[in-house]
Amino acid sequence: MLQHVHLTVHEALSGIAGSISLACWIFLLVPQLIENYRQSSADGISITFLLVWMAGDITNLAGALWADLVPTVIALAIYFCFADAVLLSQCFYYNTLNARRERKRSVAAAENAVTDENAPLLAEQQDNLGLPGSRRRSSAASRRRTRSSAERSNSLANILEEGQGSTAWLKNTLSVAIILIAGAAGWAIAWRAGAWKPTPVDVSDGGRHMPVGAEILGYASAVCYLGARIPQIIKNHRERSCEGLSLLFFLLSLMGNLTYGAGILLHSVDKQYFLKNLPWLIGSLGTIFEDAVIFMQFHMYGEKTSAIE
């Protein structure tokens, strides 16, 4: 029978928070990959955002290797870099493919413009063959039919969009709830199996276990994480749209950063321990504010689009 050491409430909460954070990071990029695939486009997401974020993950991996952190942290850092590469590859693929299609459409449109430049004259001659006033009545009726069809189409689009929006929020909420439950359950199983044990905080030597170079890389990673979202926020503001972005992607990012920081702070409030983990705390908790800005953009631009339509 497995023997367990005494587990305090703070240690248990720290372990649960860390496990939930791990679950969030594992599934973080999947929603955006699916969104890009569904739209066959990556126009909604900023490439600069992804490149700077990947730079943060690379410096995070280098710092973890230099500091000789636990294998799970290193494995997760490697997974981050792999997932970043997959998402970037998908974005470059769709951007290149759609750019080629746009060039072909432009060439075809130019050729059609030359062919159709005499079409209005031919149509006018054919209309003039009818009775006096018939062309005007026909044009007016055509305009009325066009307006009526457009109004019906817009009304139907609004109804479908409202339904899809409600369904999307429900799916996102359920997805976040499932990941929270899975993370907590994973920690409970690991604890009962003896695979997870509370780590004592050793500050007898002032907490100076981490090499200076690894600490510098940690701060560099934090700077990259903090700066990565700025291009995306600017892009959303410039285009007044969040179309093409996965809300669940940013929800998981928020949950992952929040639980990651909570896992560190719940483990110990010792000053040296806090300073040792400060780069990672800045990188995780600092981005929560930027995620909140993106959530506001989802709300503002989504509401604005609905009002216009």
Automatic annotation (TrEMBL):
GO terms for biological process: vacuolar transmembrane transport. It comes from the Eukaryota. Residues 134-147 have a biased composition (Basic residues). Residues 128-150 are annotated as: Disordered. It is found in: Membrane. It catalyses: L-histidine(out) + L-arginine(in) = L-histidine(in) + L-arginine(out). It is a multi-pass membrane protein. PANTHER family: SEVEN TRANSMEMBRANE PROTEIN 1, SEVEN TRANSMEMBRANE PROTEIN 1-RELATED. This is Vacuolar membrane PQ loop repeat protein. It comes from Aureobasidium subglaciale (strain EXF-2481).
